[in-house]
Amino acid sequence: MDSSLFLRLSPELRNVVYEHTFTSQYAVTLLSGKVQHSLTMTCRQLRRETLKMYYSIARLNAHLDDGPATPLAEWLKVQGPELIMCINELNIWDMHNLNGTLHGTDSTTILLRSTPAEGMLYTLRPVGAWVFNRGWYLKDIMLALHGMGLSLSRFCIVNEDDGDSKIKQTSEFAIVPLEPAPVDLAITDDFTGVNEAARQFGLSDRARGEMITKVASGERTVRLVEGHRRLVFEFAEDRGIWLRNVRQEFTSELEDVDWSALGDLDRE
What we know:
The protein is about 30% helix and about 25% strand. Helix 1 crosses helix 2 (about 45-55), helix 3 (about 70-80) runs parallel beside helix 6 and helix 7 (about 190-200) packs antiparallel against helix 8 (about 205-215). By secondary structure, it is of the alpha/beta class. The N and C termini lie far apart (about 95 Å). It has 2 domains: about 1-180, no CATH class; about 180-268, no CATH class.
């Protein structure tokens, strides 16, 4: 390609050509096996010049078909954090509906600068405990991102005048760096990532403090109780302490009943 007439064009002109080539009204389906444009695989130089631009322009569709998001999470791991942050739009579908859309850095900036309606603004909020209910499909994705130093924040709509008093949640999510948030806990830098991961999953200050205390004491499987549900957090420490998996254990309301005592009552 060194002798190619195309490469004699200025970088600015080549970028115009790339943009026109990648722009399409159709989204790319991840399951097709042909995610990356053929131009990005022509040679090393063109790949360096085009791959990030391609991801920043293309719209991607991931169809989970009512199954787990593990394949999508694995695909994200293969891409790596640098390409993931370039993603323009990644739509996550079940068999019938669009569940959510992920946005990289540039796409997030554009959305935050836009106005969903007159007097309304976009803002970012942690995904929170919603992920343990209707947002469970995001769990594997969040874990994959956490392993790369990234996370998700949710786009919410607020009134320009009322601020956070009335928040409307959306199904749009921003891929963001997993930055530790300051908290009033006596912890070292080794556990600020643990704290932030817990915060992204919507745990309270008390629960986060309990988790950090257990992790600091050497536990790598931490169970926290929330109502009739146990949340199980599994940590790894091969590259610092990081959250590897989250799962739920549901308990019955009858679990705590002393059945032997009831038997004594029957005999009476």
